[in-house]
Amino acid sequence: NAGVTQTPKFRVLKTGQSMTLLCAQDMNHEYMYWYRQDPGMGLRLIHYSVGEGTTAKGEVPDGYNVSRLKKQNFLLGLESAAPSQTSVYFCASSQIAGEIQETQYFGPGTRLLVL
Amino acid sequence: AQKVTQAQTEISVVEKEDVTLDCVYETRDTTYYLFWYKQPPSGELVFLIRRNSFDEQNEISGRYSWNFQKSTSSFNFTITASQVVDSAVYFCALSDTGRRALTFGSGTRLQVQP
Fold first, then answer.
1. Is the peptide bond between B40 and the residue preceding it cis, with omega within 30 degrees of 0?
2. Please, which of A98, B17, B86, B88 could form a disulfide with B40 given CB 3.0 to 4.6 Å?
3. In this complex, do B102 and A43 lie within 8 Å of one another by their Cβ atoms?
4. C-alpha dihedral sign at A29, A35, A37, A40
5. Which of A21, A32, A35 has the alpha carbon at shortest distance from A81?
6. Helix/strand/coil percentages in chain A, nearest 5
């Protein structure tokens, strides 16, 4: 049981390049999230998904796209990277049962540097 | 809109001291969940506790304890007899009933000196 995994762990991009970050979970969770963490700040929600085939915007969605074609995977895409997207990206997943929210489990993070 | 405030940016203590990390939140939801996560220097986020808005009982887990007070919208975290391994950034977070996503505070960096 690996929990939440993220690929890659670290990446350097040049401005204008594109890339996809992959998140995978093996806990059969319905909800998945992408957050970014910038120095001195807490995590901020980029996009989220409440189930396979669904996605929605969070607080800071500009410049990112996501897809959830399979329940266990949640992809975050940067079409044209900008230096402002230099950050640490965390994926998370959780199970929801009615009013009850279970713990949100996080992946190890992807450190992205855009030059 | 939801908000989580961790007013203490950085705290430095000497080993074996007790330390309390403050967390104040704002929400219009009547049902919500509060969380604490630890982020050690290695960077991963480690879950510490989850508490729902209907359960105001304080909780103790080893050297860790949490004080939830709905009347003051606070969910404070105390480490008793701190150790060097407690050095980390600690985040308080609040979930919403819609997206079920977390709103994080800006974190408190705790440094425990030997």
1. no
2. B88
3. yes
4. negative
5. A21
6. 5, 50, 45
The predicted-structure confidence for B61-103, as pLDDT tens digits, reads as follows 899 999 999 999 999 999 999 999 999 999 999 998 777 889 9
Distance (Å) of CA A46 to CA A35, A55, B6, B108: 5, 11, 21, 22
- What pLDDT digit, counting tens, does each position of A27-81 carry? 999 999 999 999 878 899 999 999 999 999 999 999 999 999 999 999 999 999 9
Report the residue from B9, B100, B103 with minimal CB separation from A101: B100
Q: Which CA distances in Å does B75 have to B22, B69, B70, B94?
A: 7, 6, 8, 10
The answer to whether the Cβ–Cβ distance between A96 and B101 falls below 8 Å is no
Question: Which structure tokens are listed for B109?
Answer: 């960096």
* Strand pairing report for A10-13 and A73-78: unpaired
